[in-house]
Amino acid sequence: MDNYNNNFNAENDQNFVIVNSNKEDKFSNTWETADYKIVEPKKKRKGRGKVAALITGGLLCAIIGGVIGAGGVYYLNRKLYTTDVNGTTATKGVNYDPPTFAKDEQALTTTDVVKKVSPAVVTVSTNSIQQGLFSPTEQEGVGSGFIINEEGYVLTNFHVISGAQQLKVTLNSGKEVNAKIVNYDQEQDLAVVRITDNIKVPGVVELGDSDALQAGEEVIAIGSPLGKEFVGSVTKGIISSPSRVIESNGKKTTFIQTDATINPGNSGGPLINSTGQVIGINTAKKVGEGIEGMGFSIPINQVKDRLATLSKPILKLGVQVREVDANTAKQNNLEEGIWIADVEEFSPAEKGGIQRGDLIINFDGQRVKKLDELNKLKEKHKSGDTVKITVLRDGKEVNLNIKLTE
What we know:
The protein is mainly β. The protein has helices at about 110-115, 160, 300-305, 305-310, 325-330, 350, 370-380; strands at about 15-20, 45, 60-65, 90, 95, 120-130, 135-145, 155, 165-170, 175-185, 190-195, 220-225, 235-250, 250-260, 270, 280-285, 295-300, 320-325, 335-345, 360-365, 365, 385-395, 395-405.
C-alpha cells in the first residue's frame, strides 16, 4: 500500500492537539488570540534510524501515488456556516429570530443514540515505515472513523491515515478487517477509506445538518480514545459554539466547539446529535494548564459536497517523497522540489523511469515545488493519461513520461 504523509509546521506551540493516534509527527497552527500547537501524539516506534543531513530541514515522508500530502502549515479553508430561521419583529426596528428546538418525540435517549450509531463507528489502525538513509523506523497509529454507505466506505480525518502503508479497520464487534485508502482532502483534513474484505457492513450513519446546531444542544462522541483498548467509548457534552471561527496565517477555519471529552484516538470519529445523526468529525482539542472541555469537530455540512469526489480513487504514481523547501535547498545546494525517497516496485513511476534520488521540478509542463502543487495538477487527469515529469538527476534535467493509474 502507498504511504501517505504530509509536511506540517510544528515550531511554536503546545496547546492545540490533533487527537488521532500515537504518532511522533507534530503539527502546528498559530491562532490569532493565542498560541496553539496541533500536535500529533507519539506513535509506537519499532527500530531506530539516523536522520541524514538532507532531511533535517523538517522534511517528512509522503507518497505520490494513492495520495500526495500538501506540505506546509496546517490550515483548513472552510466556509463559515450560520443558522437561518424565519424571524418575527419583537419590538419596533428590532428583528427577532426565535430559536427552533427538536420536538420531544424526535430526541432519543443517550442509550438509544449509541445503539443507533455505534455499529457504524470503527477504529482505523495504521502501520507505516519512515524511510531514513540508514535504516527504517516502523510506526503504528490508531484513530476512529464511521461507515457512510453499504459499500463499506469509511469517513475519517486525513491525519489519521497520514503515513499509512498498511491499513486495518476494527468494527464495533471487535472484528478486524482489511482496508485501503480511497482518496483524501488534506486541506480540509478529510479522508475516505474502504473496507476491502467481503463482509456485510454492520451499520451506516445518518448525516445531520450542522448548520442547524445551536449552543447548548446535547451531543455525543464515539471513538477509540488512546487506542483499541477503549474501542467504542462514549462521551457526552453540549455544543459550546456551533461555528467557532479561528483565523490562522490569514486563513479562517470553522469548527464545532464542544465540551464532550475528546482524546487521542477519537480523531475521525463522529460527533452526534440527540436524534442519532452525525453532525461533525472529531478532530482536535485545546490542552494546557487549567483548560478543560474544549474539543473541536469539522461540521458535517462542510463535508457533504466533498463525499462524491472523496469516494473516487486518486491517481497513482507510486513513489515515496520528501519535500525540499527553500531553506533545505539552500543548505544542501539543491533546487526546491520533490525528492524521491523510494519508488514502489511495478508502479507507474518505476515503469516510467523515475529513480530514487531524483528531484521532481516540473509536472505536466509546470514548475512544482510543493506536494500540494503536484497533487492539484495530477487531479486534472484521469486514469490512463500520460504526463511529462522533469527531474533533476546528477545535476541534469531528465524528461520522463509517466502513465497514471488508479
